[in-house]
Design goal:
The chain is 41% helix and 20% strand. It has 479 residues and is α+β, with helices and mostly antiparallel strands.
C-alpha cells in the first residue's frame, strides 16, 4: 500500500501599494505603459549621497490592509536593508522590514468547495519593488520605472493544503486589497505576484520538511499549475525514498508547465539585514490605528455572510455581487430605492446589467443605468406596469443606450403593460377565430398548442399584454 502524503504550502503575496509616488522618493509610481526608465531619479536609482523619505500614504494604506487582514499593529516598526545583488536592484539592496514589521499575526477566512477555512497571516510588511528585466537574444534590458514603488508583502503561515486553497486565498487577498483601496492588485500590470513555498510530509506527521519556493508567479492559473507540478515532483522523490533534503528556490516555465532549479534557498544571514540608517523608525500610536480601523468598509467576508443571512441570495449571486466594492454598493443602493425583494434585484443585476457591462468591457461605476433608474424599472415590473420580459429586453436596452429612466422610455414608446380584460379579450377572440384547426387540436386534448395561441395574442399586442390576464382569458374562451 502506497504511503499517503499531505501538501504543506505557504504563500508570499507581493502587491504594489496604490500611491501617486514611489515608496521613498517623489518619482511617479505609474510604471505601466510608461517609457522605459522615465520615472527614475537619483534616490530610486541608488546614487551616492541621496536620502530616502518615507511615503506617508503608502504606510497608511499598508496599515489599512493589515487591519483588513486582522493583523496586530505594533506601535514601533522599522525599515531594514536587505542586501543582495541583481541587475533589477540598482541600489544593491532592498529597503524592507525584517524583525520589526509594521504588522503581524493576522488571519483570513476562505471557502473552498463550500468548506470554510482560516489561513493565518504571519505578517504584512512594507518594502520597495525591484525593476523589470526583459531578456532578449542579445542580452537583458533593464527598466527601472518599477524600482522603488511601494510594496506590501503578505506572508502566510504554512496552513494551505492544496493548489485550490492557495488560489482561493490569493483571490481573497486580492479582493480585500481592492475593497479598501490599498492596491489595484492587477496581475496583468505586474501589480501582484506570488511566491509559493511547497513541501510534502507523511499524513499524521507534523514536521515541516525542506521546501521548494516557486518564485514570481503572476496569475492564479500559474499559481495552481506550479503548485500541482511541484507536488507531483516531490511525491516521486518521497516514493523513491529520497525526499528533498534542502530548501531550494525554483522558477516556473509556463510554456513547459514545469518548475526548474534556480539555487539553494537564501536565509536571513545571506541577506545581511541591518537597520536602514537613513530612515527613522515608524511609530503607529494606538489612537491613530483605531482611527484607521474605523475607516475600514464592510469587508467581503462579512458582507457575504450578511447577504446569505438577510437576503437569502444564492452562493453564486453572493460571490458575484460582493466581488468588488462598487458592485456591492450599487446593489445595495438599488435595494434601498426599490420595493422589489433582494433576490429579484440580484437576479436582474447578474443576468442583465452585468451582461451588458461585460459586453462593453465596462466596470459598474461606468454603468449608463444608475441605481435610481434600475430601481424605477424593477418597481414598474413589480406593480405590473410592464412585463418582466419587456423590462429585460427592449426597455433596459433603451435605458442602457440612452442613459434614460424607465418611466420616460415606457411612456415614450408606449410600452405600458395592458391589463384591460376587454381589450385583451377582443384580440384573443380574433386569434381563436383565425386559428380554428389549432383550437380543435387543443379541445381534443393537445394542450401543448395553448402556448402557441397565447404567443399569438402577445405578438398581436406587441408584448404589452399582461401574460397572466392573457392566460386566464384564453382558458376561459377555450372553455
Amino acid at each position: 500500500m502506497s504511503q499517503l502524503f499531505e501538501t504543506v504550502i505557504g504563500l508570499e503575496i507581493h502587491a504594489q501599494i496604490s500611491t501617486q509616488s514611489k515608496m521613498f522618493c517623489s518619482c511617479s509610481a505609474n510604471a505601466y505603459n510608461a517609457e522605459p526608465n522615465e520615472n527614475t531619479c537619483p534616490v530610486c536609482m541608488g546614487f551616492p549621497g541621496q536620502l530616502p523619505v518615507i511615503n506617508e500614504e503608502a504606510v497608511r494604506k499598508g496599515i489599512m490592509a493589515a487591519l483588513a487582514l486582522n493583523c496586530t499593529i505594533p506601535e514601533i516598526s522599522k525599515f531594514d536593508r536587505k542586501n543582495y545583488f541583481y541587475p533589477d536592484l540598482p541600489k544593491g539592496f532592498q529597503i524592507s522590514q525584517f524583525d520589526k514589521p509594521v504588522s503581524e499575526k493576522g488571519s483570513l477566512n476562505i471557502f473552498v468547495e463550500g468548506v470554510e477555512k482560516t489561513i493565518r497571516v504571519t505578517r504584512l510588511h512594507l518594502e520597495d519593488d525591484a525593476g523589470k528585466l526583459s531578456h532578449i537574444e542579445r542580452g537583458t534590458l533593464c527598466d527601472y520605472n518599477r524600482s522603488g514603488i511601494g510594496l506590501m508583502e503578505i506572508v502566510s503561515e504554512p496552513d494551505i493544503r492544496s493548489a485550490a486553497e492557495a488560489s482561493a486565498y490569493a483571490k481573497e487577498v486580492q479582493i480585500v486589497l481592492r475593497y479598501i483601496g490599498s492596491s489595484e492588485a492587477d496581475m496583468e500590470k505586474g501589480m501582484m505576484r506570488f511566491d509559493a513555498s511547497v513541501s510534502l510530509r507523511p499524513v499524521g506527521d507534523e514536521t515541516l520538511y525542506p521546501r521548494a519556493e516557486i518564485k514570481n508567479l503572476n496569475s492564479f492559473k500559474s499559481l495552481e499549475s506550479a503548485i500541482e507540478f511541484e507536488v507531483r515532483r516531490q511525491r516521486k522523490l518521497w516514493e523513491a525514498g529520497k525526499p528533498q533534503d534542502k530548501n531550494i528556490t525554483v522558477g516556473w516555465k509556463e510554456e513547459k508547465q514545469e518548475t526548474y532549479f534556480m539555487r539553494e534557498k537564501e536565509g536571513a544571514d545571506d541577506y545581511r539585514y541591518f537597520p536602514e540608517p537613513d530612515l527613522p523608525p515608524l511609530r503607529a500610536p494606538k489612537e491613530m490605528v483605531d482611527e484607521y480601523r474605523k475607516l475600514l468598509p464592510e469587508l467581503p467576508y462579512v458582507r457575504r455572510l450578511r447577504y446569505a443571512k438577510d437576503y437569502g441570495l444564492s452562493e453564486g449571486d453572493i460571490y458575484l455581487l460582493s466581488e468588488n466594492r462598487p458592485l456591492a454598493e450599487y446593489f445595495e443602493n438599488t435595494l434601498s430605492l426599490t420595493k422589489c425583494e433582494p433576490k429579484k434585484v440580484a437576479s436582474f443585476m447578474t443576468t442583465v446589467l452585468i451582461r451588458f457591462l461585460n459586453e462593453d468591457a465596462k466596470d459598474i461605476d461606468e454603468s449608463p443605468v444608475s441605481p435610481q433608474h434600475l430601481a424605477e424599472l424593477l418597481d414598474a415590473v413589480e406593480s405590473g406596469k410592464v412585463s418582466n420580459n419587456m423590462a429585460k429586453g427592449e426597455i433596459f436596452e433603451e435605458m442602457y443606450l440612452k442613459s434614460m429612466g424607465a418611466a420616460e422610455i415606457i411612456k415614450e414608446k408606449g410600452l405600458e403593460q395592458v391589463s384591460d380584460t376587454g381589450e385583451i379579450e377582443k384580440v384573443a377572440a380574433e386569434v381563436l377565430a383565425a386559428n380554428p384547426s389549432i383550437v380543435e387540436e387543443y379541445r381534443s386534448g393537445k394542450v401543448k398548442v395553448f402556448g402557441f395561441l397565447v404567443g399569438q395574442v402577445m405578438a398581436k399586442m406587441k408584448g404589452r399584454a399582461n401574460p397572466g390576464v392573457v392566460n386566464d382569458l384564453m382558458k376561459k374562451l377555450l372553455g
